# Entry
Amino acid sequence: MPLSVQTLANRLTFRQLQVFLCVYQTASYSKAGEQLGLTQPAVSSQVRQLEAALDVPVFEYVGRKLYCTAAGETLAKSIAVMFDELRFLQSDLAAMKGQVAGDLKIVAVNTAQYVVPYLLKPFCEQHPALNVDVRVVNRAEAIKRLNDNQDHLVIMGIVPEEKPLASMPFMDNELLAVAHHDHPIHLEKNLSVQRFLDAGLLSRESGSGSRLALELFGQQNRLSVKPIMQLGSNDAVKHGVLAGLGVAVLPRLSILPELKLGLLKTVALEGFPLKRSWCVVYPKGKHPTPSMRAFLEFIQDNLGNLESFFKNN
# Structure
């Protein structure tokens, strides 16, 4: 006989539902425990209590792999709806107090990690009731997450033109040609861009924003862009240049300390620095939440302040 709503309400707790959803999403008791700050036995205990309350198994092991049962799949859909309603309630109650509350999920491409903290500090001070979650990923992952509508906003440089996306540029992203301060290339006069690119170019992996910007510049100017080494982050490229492995084109914000200390020097080249814009991006069909609108309005209201802050640092 099906359980009544009152009986379910008496038996279930939100903590049990939260633990179940985390195990469901990670497919692991131990990973769920790490995310929730619980031990694996504590996670198992919560799931067992949930199964006892529902009188059905929600997970099962086949061999050593954890699988969700049909009942668990149905439960996961219901919990997602319940938690969405809680988020709406949180936002509505905060709005009644004149506040913006709830969640704001932001994804930033690797290079944007140098910008985002300075955006979030004053924004979070204005909206203390907001829960802001930031994930830093590479450009390919950012585009995938945009396609899957996994986040509220994405901060990136070059916005894919072939996709139906809304974007708001908010700050210049300067890419500088640099070399170690005692690299012999600094002694050359009338240096061409091609000569610089042939002097042992270190670069990010194919598809990254800074690599793509350089390749587009190369195509427009009929230049050959052939890195001698590909590295997985701007920091790795920077340290490669510092170690004397070669030259690079790097975002100015990622090398400010090294430029100030004189460890790296810019190389004067025609067409440089390359200038792109940082943009806040989201799918055009997405209905902005109050937290999204608050962040977009904050960016719009502080465009001049952001530019001047980074130019003076």
